[in-house]
């Protein structure tokens, strides 16, 4: 008998989807599903099949080609197909070209050089939260969101004076909705983003800076290496990927640690454990729950199932990361786990370009936050938290995380060193 959950995949409890993922995974690695919007797709939920699919030559990311062939294929979100010519929405050789143009900004030396700046931003944000003196603070609004958004804005060259508006538009655009059509506020936010990015390109042409948008403009104007549409698409994708996933990683990870106080205490006592713990958090509660859409160029055999040609495919990274065939006690968070390899950043040619940056931000955020506020606790029970942030199937994160930074009567650790506050 067909599992009823497969009839409306995506219409499930976002606050705790893992029991459902385990149930579906136990039924096999590959399933034909009906998405919540009525479209048909194939879902992959086990680790080995997911890893194979993520780098399978028979699966394409070129949704323009899919839409041209079959209008029933789902186009992913706003601003729409016109902004889909970025590295996550094309195949080689276009993918190779677009990724190469952005890759220098995310190289190992460039990311390592960002450490002092990221530390300064973290310290400044925590200074602000502490200075407010509020009994309860929202860790998403006050810390987990502005940290990665500030970093990616600086990398791209988005002026500080524009960031409140841009951040608000992206927050509105990425807010979940159960309506069959995008809500009016999301459409308005999308239009504002498109208009702003067009204006930003014009500004960088007139007044170049030391930033990634200027580099893209130069490549387009001097070397004819990419089109205007590809520039706009790439900037849009980098803003989303550069802040939203890390916001969710910091929020999800903080909840995970607060629910496992003995493991959190171990991190506070020995901050060198944080990088390993971050990998386990990524495995245990991935901020990107499903990969972005692919479709089959031909019949593709995976896990004993043949997915027919020109079918839509989604890969559940979150389900694969808790596959008991891959991990011992996969439902348990264990920061001492020997095997913390995971698919949270994807695999193959579409492996997340910003993975190094996300790791750097998460490591500094977790080390500083939990070292500075070792007695921090959630202001609400776990059952009251809502994982309502994200776009459809792909992203999953907290819209807010109310915490008490230093409960009254509990000692608060003073950080060994605070970097200079970032400029306002």
Characterization of the model:
This is Cytochrome P450. Pfam families: p450. It comes from Kribbella orskensis. Keywords: Heme, Iron, Metal-binding, Monooxygenase, Oxidoreductase. Belongs to the cytochrome P450 family. The chain has 424 residues and is of the alpha+beta class. It has a single domain (4-404), classed as Cytochrome p450 (Orthogonal Bundle), CATH 1.10.630.10. 46% of the residues lie in helices and 8% in strands. The chain has helices at 18-26, 47-54, 63-69, 94-103, 108-113, 115-132, 139-144, 146-156, 163-174, 184-206, 212-222, 228-258, 261-269, 274-284, 317-320, 355-372; strands at residues 30-34, 40-44, 59-60, 137-138, 294-296, 300-302, 305-307, 312-315, 377-378, 402-404. The strands form 3 sheets. The protein has a 5-stranded mixed β-sheet with strand order 1-2-8-5-3, covered by helices on one side. Strands 4-10-9 form a 3-stranded antiparallel β-sheet. A two-stranded antiparallel sheet has the order 6-7. Strand 6 and strand 7 form a beta hairpin. Helix 9 (163-174) runs antiparallel to helix 10 and helix 12 packs parallel to helix 16. It is globular, with a radius of gyration of 21 Å. Mean pLDDT is 88; it is low at 413-424.
């Amino acid at each position: 008998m067909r599992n009823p959950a497969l009839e409306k995949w995506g219409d499930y409890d976002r606050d705790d989807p893992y029991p459902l993922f385990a149930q579906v995974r136990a039924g096999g690695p590959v399933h034909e599903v009906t998405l919540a919007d009525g479209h048909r797709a194939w879902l992959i939920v086990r680790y080995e099949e997911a890893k194979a699919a993520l780098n399978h030559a028979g699966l394409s990311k070129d949704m323009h080609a899919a839409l041209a062939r079959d209008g029933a294929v789902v186009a992913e979100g706003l601003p729409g197909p016109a902004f889909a010519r970025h590295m996550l929405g094309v195949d080689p050789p276009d993918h190779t070209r677009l990724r190469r143009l952005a890759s220098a900004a995310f190289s190992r030396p460039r990311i390592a050089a960002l450490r002092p700046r990221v530390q300064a931003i973290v310290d400044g944000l925590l200074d602000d939260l502490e200075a407010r003196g509020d009994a309860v603070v929202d860790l998403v609004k006050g810390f987990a969101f502005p940290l990665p958004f500030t970093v990616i804005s600086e990398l791209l060259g988005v002026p500080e004076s524009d960031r409140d508006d841009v951040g608000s538009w992206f927050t509105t655009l990425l807010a979940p909705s159960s309506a069959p059509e995008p809500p009016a506020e999301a459409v308005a936010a999308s239009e504002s983003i498109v208009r702003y990015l067009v204006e930003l390109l014009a500004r960088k042409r007139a007044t170049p800076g030391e930033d990634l948008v200027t580099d893209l403009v130069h490549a387009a104007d001097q070397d004819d290496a990419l089109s205007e549409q590809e520039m706009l698409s790439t900037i849009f994708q980098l803003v989303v990927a550069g802040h939203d996933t890390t916001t969710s990683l910091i929020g999800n990870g903080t909840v995970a640690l607060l629910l496992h106080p003995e493991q959190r205490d171990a991190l506070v006592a020995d901050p060198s454990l944080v990088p390993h713990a971050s990998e386990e958090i990524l495995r245990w509660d991935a901020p990107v729950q499903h990969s972005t859409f692919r479709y089959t160029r031909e019949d593709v055999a995976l896990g004993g199932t043949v997915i027919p040609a020109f079918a839509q495919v989604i890969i559940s990274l979150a389900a694969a990361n808790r596959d008991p065939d891959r991990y011992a006690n996969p439902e348990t968070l264990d920061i001492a786990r020997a095997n913390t390899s995971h698919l949270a950043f994807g695999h193959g040619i579409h492996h997340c370009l910003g993975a190094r940056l996300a790791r750097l931000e998460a490591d500094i955020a977790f080390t500083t936050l939990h070292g500075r506020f070792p007695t921090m606790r959630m202001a609400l029970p776990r059952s009251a938290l809502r994982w309502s942030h994200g776009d459809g199937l792909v992203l999953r994160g907290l819209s807010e995380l109310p915490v008490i930074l230093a409960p009254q009567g509990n000692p608060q650790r003073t950080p060994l060193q605070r970097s200079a506050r970032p400029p306002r």
